[in-house]
Design goal:
alpha/beta, 7-stranded mixed beta sheet, 37% helix, binds 5-O-phosphono-beta-D-ribofuranosylamine
């Protein structure tokens, strides 16, 4: 069964395009049920329509966050996505929205997670926020990267699913730096989705407070030995 997706966009839509290309090219076993946007002017909407994908537009203008999200949830009622993919969606989702996409399974630490994926253009936890490429470039990082992660209640924070790095070159302008990062995004996001389609979500364990205990440290050492 193909993975059913709802892709949320606010702008250009190149990651959405990469997902559609991967599906058409047989590299991703998924179906985009609907593309959702808060921005009626988003170029991504034209791309989606040209590709024959249904769109749902709910402008956030003049609405409280939860009211906006309630309207989106209402529109999504006509679909049954396995995952929401935030691909350049410039709104923070509230716990009210996330609750509607709580996964039935548990994460690596036995906690709940949401069926919502985000692509972020930095090596999280470095440079969260809306201008990650600009911030990393301005900071002068030598090694930059991109992250695909599950969304939780905090911004650019949930469990990491995959990361990819790229060097900042001496000759890089901000534009060339962003272009190289974006090209990697277009590869990584469809790859992560394909791995979920095949094997479900793969979690990396996060260190929990119990792992700071003596017993936890011993367990970690065991694990490290096993991995060598
Ligand atoms: C990408 O850089 C993505 O990582 C970030 O927003 C940008 C969206 O670009 N979250 P596009 O709309 O997919 O072209």
């Amino acid at each position: 069964m193909p993975l059913k997706l709802a892709i949320f966009v606010s702008g250009r839509g190149s990651n959405m395009g990469a997902i559609l290309d991967a599906i058409n090219g047989g590299r991703l076993d998924a179906e985009v049920e609907v593309v959702v946007s808060n921005n009626p002017q988003a170029p991504a909407l034209n791309l989606a329509e040209m590709a024959g994908v249904r769109t749902l537009v709910v402008s956030h203008k003049g609405l409280e966050r939860e009211e906006h999200e309630r309207l989106i949830l209402e529109g999504l009622g006509a679909y049954s996505p396995d995952f929401i993919v935030l691909a350049g969606y410039m709104r923070v989702l509230s716990p009210y929205f996330l609750k509607a996409f709580r996964a039935s399974g548990k994460d690596a630490d036995g906690g709940d997670y949401f069926r919502v994926i985000n692509i972020h253009p930095s090596l999280l936890p470095a440079f969260p926020g809306a201008h990650a490429y600009e911030d990393a470039y301005a900071y002068g990082v030598k090694l930059a990267g991109i992250t695909v992660h599950l969304v939780d209640e905090k911004v650019d924070h949930g469990p990491i699913l995959a990361q990819e790095t790229f060097p900042r070159l001496d000759r890089d302008s901000l534009e060339s730096f962003k272009e190289r990062g974006l090209a990697l995004e277009h590869i990584l996001l469809p790859e992560v989705l394909q791995s979920i389609a095949c094997e479900g979500v793969h979690f990396f364990r996060r260190q929990s407070s119990s792992e700071n205990s003596t017993e936890g440290k011993a367990l970690k050492k065991e694990g490290a030995k096993g991995a060598s």
